[in-house]
């Protein structure tokens, strides 16, 4: 008995319109969610935080050159700080935006910080709209 026959006792077919990913394909709409300035949890030591910053810098820099990219990047909470000029990652955004990846930053966080993005291609949206984007995505990747 195969896995497809396990529940139905008969072979089942995947309906392409309902499948998240077809054989060998990627999900239809992928959203990358970034909520912080570092990758991983800060364990309270400088080495862990520094390593997390390096990983974030390498991850964002790679989005300018890698083959598969997300359709959209959503920046929430401290992740919004990555688009500000004082961030080490600031230089990565030009190549990301040049690839026509949609980048959205949380309006409420920007208001709290008293900042606006320098690049007009970065969309500022309310948390409610960003939540709607996350809920309707085919696949969300949290960095």
CATH class: Alpha Beta
How is the largest sheet built, in terms of strand order? 4-3-2-1-5
Q: Report the CATH architecture.
A: 3-Layer(aba) Sandwich
Proportion of beta-strand residues: 5-15%
- Domain module tally: 1
- Taking Cα atoms only, what radius of gyration do you get, to the nearest Å? 19 Å
Head-to-tail CA distance between termini? 38 Å
Give the low-pLDDT segments.
14-19
Q: What is the N-to-C order of secondary-structure elements (H for helix, E for strand)?
A: EHEHEHEHE
Mean pLDDT over the residues: 86
Q: Based on DSSP secondary structure assignment, what is the total number of beta strands?
A: 5
Fold-level CATH name:
Hypothetical Protein Ychn, Chain: A
The percentage helix is 25-40%
**Biggest sheet features:** 5 strands, parallel
Structural class: alpha/beta
DSSP helical segment count: 4
Shape: globular
CATH homologous superfamily label = DsrEFH-like
Oligomer: single chain
Provide structural commentary:
This protein is α/β, with parallel strands linked by helices. The chain has a single domain (28-142), classed as Hypothetical Protein Ychn, Chain: A (3-Layer(aba) Sandwich). Helices cover 29% and strands 15% of the residues. The chain is built from four helices and five strands; from the N terminus they run βαβαβαβαβ. Strands 4-3-2-1-5 form a five-stranded parallel β-sheet. The termini are far apart.
Relevant terms:
alpha/beta, about 140 residues, 5-stranded parallel β-sheet, Hypothetical Protein Ychn, Chain: A, 4 helices
Short précis:
The protein is α/β, with parallel strands linked by helices and 143 residues long. The protein is built from 4 helices and 5 strands, in the order E-H-E-H-E-H-E-H-E. The chain has a single domain, classed as Hypothetical Protein Ychn, Chain: A (3-Layer(aba) Sandwich), CATH 3.40.1260.
């Amino acid at each position: 008995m195969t896995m497809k026959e396990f529940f139905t006792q008969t072979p089942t077919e995947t309906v392409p319109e309902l499948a998240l990913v077809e054989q060998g394909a990627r999900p239809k709409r992928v959203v990358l969610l970034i909520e912080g300035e570092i990758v991983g949890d800060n364990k309270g030591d400088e080495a862990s935080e520094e390593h997390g910053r390096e990983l974030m810098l390498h991850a964002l820099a790679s989005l300018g050159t890698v083959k598969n990219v997300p359709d959209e990047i959503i920046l929430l909470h401290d992740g919004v700080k990555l688009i500000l000029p004082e961030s080490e990652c600031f230089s990565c955004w030009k190549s990301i935006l040049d690839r026509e990846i949609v980048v959205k930053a949380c309006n409420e966080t920007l208001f709290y910080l008293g900042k606006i993005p320098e690049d007009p291609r970065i969309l500022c949206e309310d948390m409610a709209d960003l939540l709607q984007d996350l809920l309707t995505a085919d696949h969300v990747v949290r960095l």
